[in-house]
Amino acid sequence: MADDAFIISKTDIKGKMTYGNRTFNDYSGFSEQDYLGVQHNIVRHPDMPRAVFKLLWDEVQAGREVFAFVKNLCKDGSFYWVFANVTPSYDPNGNVIGYFSVRRKPNRQALAQVAPLYQEMLNAERRAGSRDAIEASTGVLQAALTRANSSYENWVLNLQAS
User: Fold this and answer.
1) Any bridge partners for residue 26, and if so which?
2) Which residues contact 122 (CB under 8 A, 6 or more apart)?
3) Does the residue 2 lie in any domain?
4) Which CATH number characterizes residue 142's domain?
5) 79 within domain boundaries
6) What are the DSSP E strand ranges found in 3-161?
C-alpha cells in the first residue's frame, strides 16, 4: 500500500457492506456491484485466524474501537496487508447502526512478528477442529500477549509505531 492511502469501508450491524471508497476498490479489485449488500468477509483471506475476527467483533459490538493487522483477499486471489481501525457508527440517539473501518499501510517490521503468530494461531485452529478452533487460537494469542507482557491493543499499536 502507498504510505498515504486509506482504505475505507462501512457495514451495517450485520456486517454487510454499505460503502467502500475508491481506494478499497483499487486494492481489493472488487467493484461496488461486487460488494454492496454482501458480507464484508468477501475480503477475508483464509490465512487469517478466526480468533482475530472474533476479538474484532467482540470489541466493536461492545462499542469499542479496535485495531488489528489484517491480511485481505483480492478478487483475483492475491492479497494485501493492512493496519485496520474499526469503530462502531452511531445514529443521533446513540444506537449502533453499523461499523466504519479505516485501513492503512502496516509497518512492515510489525508484519514480521504478526505473520508467524497468525500462522501459529491457524495451526492451532486446524489441530483443534472447527468446534474448538477459536478457543485454541485465542489461547495462542493470549500466550503471545503474556510473553510480551502486553494487552492486545497495546501490542498492535506498539508494533505499528515501531
Assistant:
1) none
2) 47, 49, 137
3) no
4) 3.30.450.20
5) yes
6) 7-12, 17-20, 66-73, 79-90, 96-104
